[in-house]
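Case study 2.
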Amino acid sequence: MSADAAETAALAKGGRTSFIGYVLRLAARFPFLFIAGRMYGAEALGRFAYATMVVELVAMLATLGLKRGLAEDMARRSDAESHALFDGLLVSLLAGLAGAALLVLLPQLVFPATRLHPLDRWFALIVPFIVMSDVALAGLAFRLDVGATVRARSIIEPWVLSIAALALAFTAVKSDGMLIAYLLSMVAAAIASLVPAIASFGLPRGWRPDPRHLWHLARTNVPLAGADIAEWGARRLDIFILGRFAGAEIVGIYYVAQQIQSLPQRLKSSFDPILAPVLTRNLAAGNIAKVAVHVRQISFWVAAVQLGVVLALGITGQALMGLFGPIFASGAAILAVLLTVELFAAQAAVAEGALIYVARGKNLIWSVAGLVIQAGLSLLLVPRLGGLGAALALALAALILSVAKSRLLARQLGHKVSGWRLSLVGAGVPAALVGLLVLRAPEPVQLSIGIIAILGSYGLIIWRFGFHGADRLLFSRSMRKIEAEATTMPVLPGTADGRGH
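Prediction:
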């Protein structure tokens, strides 16, 4: 098996494993949303959504870009990978403790305009656990161990959250039940991340913290951290502004729509753990054309699978939102717009996976610009349209960033990087027509047979007419088939399958 074929197979396997893990995570997340909506209510869910947004933002800051930057540091220190891991853990832990201390001193940042409960001040102490989990999983991903991320993030974390939230709903601490469940789930995920990381890398013999290297590590990854924060902030800015201009109930409805939207969103991030090491190794070897091929291939995979999911969930949106309570059904239009956001944002997100290594400064500038555009549009639209205004602002900003970042990466690499093909339209239109027929059926039928019919019609067409050669690696189980098809993959500029489709 050639090196090129092995990399493509690794990308397909890693993305497939990570996405299957996310499907497992969603399977546990939906029960939590059902429990939260039916047993706690939209207002309590809105309070939970805002609080977790703030602590996750601080955790993102504290990782200092190491979720992606750690792979580059390990590639440079191949003889001391365990030292690199523990350097990353230490510097991010120190930053996490500082961030947690700030929120403990100022709990109003986490719970604005609401009465503070006894637990609220100490809720921010979860930040160091989130940070260490993220860095440990980034280290494991460098060794192509995506399974650890699946176990920690897709099985342990969401199921602990759902089970704990259900149990606490019948206790005297119900008012803080969701927050306590979140704390338990994040601690469990941290343990499930650190244990396999230490088992894989071992304890770092002869390692001593070097303040100069730790400072250099943090400073070097500032552009990465900025890009991470801008991308993450774009996904949370809408919640932040809604929390300021709308009531907790509206935030709760928007949060449910956002959680459903996260399924197609995760299609892209499923490739992140495996994409970083593959790109860094090729860039270090000067294989620019191969980098462009990998970006193009993943862009098409993401777009192809996303479109089917977006159509199925968007068309049946009212019935789907209504599952969590009658009041949530009013968020169907918000869900439709948020799902459309993913079609715009995916190409920019995949392009950024390479831009953070070849044009960090320019990528950061565009990320910040996108955040500013979204903020301006949100402040204009949210007071007038509420949750729908927040979703529309996010969609317009995502479209602008998608075009800008794809073009920037194409100029940097000198090769085409877009994964969009006409076959996507050819499969999407018939699936949308099937969806119009599905809407005539009762809601239970829409959510069962209807979703299957939309996905099935789309999948059959895109598989038959849109997937060729290396494209089919994403759904291949047999390694022999992977080897046979992957050897046909070109490393020269052009379409991902070499046939001009």
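DSSP finds 19 helices and no strands in the chain.
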